[in-house]
# Entry
Amino acid sequence: MGRPALPTSPDLRVQKLRDKAKAYYHAHRDERRAYEKGRQADKQEKFRAWVKANPEKARARWSASIKRYRLTESGRRALDNQDLKKRYGLTGSDFEQMNVAQNGLCFICHQAPSGKRKRRLEVDHDHQTGAIRKLLCHGCNAGMGNFKDRPELLLRAAAYLAAHMEPEASQGIYI
# Structure
């Protein structure tokens, strides 16, 4: 168990060069940042000019980029959260709390979302006041919209269905 060997002269030279480069890097940090900021501004200006000159290509490039982003799970989640915030003022965690409170089921039909729109439930809201009501599946939400949020139309539709059902199928329906 002797002493560790002293570094040889080539190792010392390499270490000195590294130390010198590190010192230069730290001493000129602000200059480097200013230079990069200027380059970034130039790139942005060139890109804006290209977009003005090529609006169709720019739109196609942006559209393809968004489509690729939507294919990722994180992209879908981010865009969904952005949409919730913009339309209803809900955050992703607010939506998740509502979803957990309803056990992930539609408030009306008590089914989990299915079909093309099985990703998540939809936010039902009052179109006059903007007040959020509950989470519904796409079918129930579309149905509410088709009946223009008018309970009397829904009651008439329920009575119509009950009147035209087979006797054994209509048992347990009270209107």
The CA atoms of residues 60 and 66 lie 10 Å apart.
